[in-house]
Fold:
Amino acid sequence: MTPSIDAYRRVREATLRLVDGLGDADLTPQSAEFASPAKWHLAHTTWFFEQFVLAARGRGYRRFDERFGFLFNSYYNAVGARHDRPRRGLLTRPALAEVLAWRAHVDHAMADFLGGRVSEDAGALVELGLHHEQQHQELILTDLLHLFAQNPLRPAVRVSNPAAAMPAAACAQEWIAFDGGNVEAGHAGAAFAFDNESPRHVVALRPFRLAARPVTNREWQAFVDAGGYRDPRPWLSDGWDTVQAQRWQAPLYWEDGADGAPLQMTLDGLRPRDSEAPVAHVSFFEADAYARWAGKRLPTEFEWEHAARGLAIEGNFVERGAWRPLPASASGAGPRQMFGDVWEWTASPYVAYPGFRVAAGAVGEYNGKFMNGQYVLRGGSCASPRSHLRASYRNFFQPGQRWQFSGLRLAEDS
Structure:
């Protein structure tokens, strides 16, 4: 189904709201090779529509600047050469004003395009482009958080809505039993999903139990206090090597104040660490080590999806304006916080489902070529748009990465 011009505008305008009040000095720097400048994200998402929709199908569309294709192509080898990723922060030109002018130019052309007759495959490309932009909305926030965390002033990227985060009491951990058996996994239905969520297929699950909520900062502090980052026994070999090489002692963004008070860098600046909120910014290596230390394990992605099937897509998403994970509610039954707050690491490597086929053309490079050396995360985070998520959604990162809002939920065999 072809998205309406209103749907297109909602996503594009949501991106600009994330950087409202920030200038070129905030949006141009690149804090690490794995991150990108926010200005680059604004440009790359515009390039996507220009390259794959307007230039290919836009009925006489003229590119805003022929040079921008080289600057803002991310990883599409079939499209052509591109600027080196580690050097994106050196792009002081085009300036922010010119990038925004480009966005307006493309948006105007897209309004004309969507107002005409749109083929089914072109409409599918537009829808893919909007979900692609929602992915970059989350990356804008996580990359800006990493950048601002390098600043000794610890400035805020976004100021929290005071009503978004209410104090919560400790929520005791509960365990929910699942019978297992042969279950279906993967996307079903006509609604949008990425290609890596298909084909739907049957998997066999053994009986298991799943924690009702994610692991909290308080519980992770016990791991730290017990010497978890000094003891190699619960760690995978590559994980322990990473701990030693990176000198990890706690999750990313944890700090101690001058008086010893526990603090955490957030999108709202340096704030007191909420002991009952889900732990965030931990790598797969850390999540796996914690689970072993606790005598549990990480769930597989299929156990997670089976538990999430039928649950409402409700939680702490970017629209709430909390800008950080929040504690679980002490009331209610069944799994909590399955969506929002933190992406949850699973034990599953990111590989193709049985029968998966890479799409033809350059967009076939979107997901399939990354199915190597990465692990699956599920559920979304406090920086994810609500409309972007579903039970079958598969996020993926390399096991040593932790600048995303990534946490964990424990599982065990029944």
Q: What stands out?
A: The mean pLDDT is 95.
